[in-house]
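Newbie here. two chains, one complex. Structure please?
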Amino acid sequence: DAGVIQSPRHEVTEMGQEVTLRCKPISGHNSLFWYRQTMMRGLELLIYFNNNVPIDDSGMPEDRFSAKMPNASFSTLKIQPSEPRDSAVYFCASTPGRNTEAFFGQGTRLTVV
Amino acid sequence: KNEVEQSPQNLTAQEGEFITINCSYSVGISALHWLQQHPGGGIVSLFMLSSGKKKHGRLIATINIQEKHSSLHITASHPRDSAVYICAVGSARQLTFGSGTQLTVLP
C-alpha cells in the first residue's frame, strides 16, 4: 500500500479563494482524521470520520471550514473563503480501528497570501 | 499548564550518543504515541503504547502509567535521526500533542 496520500503537497492561493485539500486513506482503514499544524499551536485535530461518518468536528475552527468523506477511499477538506491565518500544514491520517496506530500523509502546505 | 509536556525542546548530540526524550502528561489516556517529523514535514508514527516498553531497531519507548510519563530512547544515534519527535496522548480521535523535541545529531 502506498500509505495515506494527500494532494496537493503545496498550495499557494490568494485570500478569499476556495481551497480544497484531498486525502486518500490506507485501504481498509475505517477512521480518518484531518489535523492542522502551525508554529503557534502545533498539531490540532480538526475533524474525525469513522466509517465515512463525521464523528467529531469540534476542532473545525470556523464555518469557512468543511470536510466530507463521500466514500471509504476519499476525503476532502475545504476552506471557503480562505484567509492568511489559515496558512499551515494540513495532515490527513487514517487508522484501522480504535486505539490503533495512526498513519499520516505527507501533508499539504497551504499558504494564503 | 499544557496537558502534554516534552523535554527537552531542543537537543543536539554527537553521532553515537544515547538519546532520551521525555514526555509527561496530565490527562488520563488510552495510549501514548511517539511520532517523528522529518525536515521535509512528513509525520511517521514510531510507537503506540499503553504499558511497558516497545523496541524497534535502535528506538525504545517506555511508559509508566502511574507516573504519567514516557521516554523515547535512541541508541547509537545517527545524523539521519535528526528530526522533531512528538509525543501525543489519547486515542487517535482525541490526540493531544506535545510541542515536540527538535533533535539534531551531528556527525
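Moderator note: The interface with chain B takes residues 31, 33, 42-45, 48, 55-56, 89, 91, 93, 95, 98-107, 109 of chain A (CB under 8 Å). Chain A has a mean pLDDT of 92. Thread marked as resolved.
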